[in-house]
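the two lines:
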Amino acid sequence: NAGVTQTPKFQVLKTGQSMTLQCAQDMNHEYMSWYRQDPGMGLRLIHYSVGAGITDQGEVPNGYNVSRSTTEDFPLRLLSAAPSQTSVYFCASSFLPGQGPPEAFFGQGTRLTVV
Amino acid sequence: AQSVSQHNHHVILSEAASLELGCNYSYGGTVNLFWYVQYPGQHLQLLLKYFSGDPLVKGIKGFEAEFIKSKFSFNLRKPSVQWSDTAEYFCAVNARGNTGKLIFGQGTTLQVKP
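prediction for all of em together
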């Protein structure tokens, strides 16, 4: 049981390049999310999904696209990378237990540098 | 919209000192509340969570938090910190019924001196 797997772990991009950060979970969780972590800013929600085929914007969606064609995968696409997108990106999956709050599981993160 | 504010950005303590990290949230409806910890180089791990019932919740590693509804607060406490508690701590809120949308505070870096 791998949990939430993010690839790659590290990436350097040139300004204007595009790329996709991969996120896969093997826990059959309905909900998946992408966050970016910047010093002094905490984690900010980029996009999230409440199930296959359904996505919504978070706090900082500009410059990023997502899709959710399967329950397992939730890729994050940078359309035209900018230095302001240099950050550590975390993917999370979560589920709602029968009783209690949702439980979230986080991936190991992708450290992205845009030069 | 929900928002979360953590008052302390950087806290330095000696081992055995007591810890209290402040967290206030802004949201008019019912929320679930969480504290996460991130050890250096690692991903986030759940420390504790509040859903309903007793406002004093206990988590892992001796941490506890108290939900005060009238103050919109969910402060994290530990009576005696250890060097291994050195980490970044995040408070987060999730509006009830909006699973998957966690809103985080800015984080507090805790440094415990041996």
